[in-house]
Specification:
about 280 residues, alpha/beta, D-Maltodextrin-Binding Protein, domain 2, five-stranded mixed beta sheet
């Protein structure tokens, strides 16, 4: 009977030791990083240009002992979901206005930790190779979402195609056009479809990511938004993390690797003005 009691006590002690050890291991993500063992930085990103820019710094991070893992997403929701749930350490695909709207609508607390680039919206050749060639009734395609339509209209206004009401800025709509000397038709289209619609348009105003994805180059462009425009300052794309991770070693290493002269040179060479560094 005494031996049975001793065995029971021993079993209980071993069970407690096992449970304590298991609990200590369950916090591995935090304790591992604190101990310097978790050296993988996982980042959710759009394929173009975000993933391309990130991939350009993999070797630099590797020299510092970090492994950069880029997880590509084709939509604008899942990267934030993955970041919020801790499936990735950061994301890189969005600008501040979108981030603010996402946080407001979803009750999340994601924060920007570093500016990287600005995707210049461009006017691309359809049946016409310049603004001067536009004729009455020609169709110009613009994105149909509020933000990008305003940018497209401001680009057209900056190049003399039309005139907008004073002060409308990045809230401009077709209702704000006060002068249209060539009576061009502004055709509102889903942004992603405009590249494929160019054969049916005189000119298409296209977001850089969709233009690049469609294989359009600076040779196909008539004009780009200016680098010092209101849109360029407002819609800079940023690296985003969960609040509380702003000063983590992973975050600091990632931002430092991206915000370099080497990355600026890569962006200039790779994207020829369609994407511009903003740090």
């Amino acid at each position: 009977m005494k031996n049975l009691r001793k065995l029971s006590v021993l079993a209980l002690v071993l069970a407690l030791v096992f449970a304590f050890t298991a609990c200590g291991g369950s916090g591995g993500g935090e304790s591992t990083e604190a101990g310097g063992e978790d050296k993988t930085i996982k980042v959710a990103a759009s394929p173009t240009p975000h993933a391309e820019i990130l991939n350009s710094v993999k070797d630099k991070l590797a020299e510092e002992g970090w492994t950069l893992e880029v997880v590509e997403f084709d939509d604008y929701v899942q990267p934030n979901v993955a970041t919020t749930e801790g499936d990735v350490d950061a994301n890189y695909f969005q600008h501040i206005p979108y981030l603010d709207q996402y946080n407001s609508e979803n009750g999340t607390n994601l924060v920007a930790v570093g500016n990287v680039h600005y995707e210049a919206m461009g006017a691309y050749k359809g049946s016409k190779a310049s603004f001067d060639e536009l004729a009455e009734g020609d169709k110009i395609g613009v994105p149909n979402d509020v933000t990008n339509e305003a940018r497209a209209l401001q680009l057209l206004a900056a190049n003399g195609v039309l005139t907008l009401k004073d002060g409308v800025g990045l809230e401009a709509t077709v209702a704000d056009i006060v002068d249209n000397p060539k009576n061009v038709e502004i055709v509102e289209l889903e942004a992603a479809t405009i590249p494929a619609s160019l054969p049916d348009l005189a000119i298409g105003v296209i977001n850089a990511n969709y233009a690049l994805g469609a294989g359009l180059t600076t040779d196909d462009a008539i004009a780009y938004e200016a680098g010092d425009s209101e849109a360029a300052e407002t819609y800079v794309n940023v690296i985003v993390v969960n609040a509380g991770n702003e000063e983590s070693e992973k975050t600091k290493a990632l931002v430092a690797a991206v915000q370099t002269d080497e990355v600026k040179a890569f962006i200039d060479e790779q994207f020829k003005g369609a994407v511009q560094a903003k740090f």
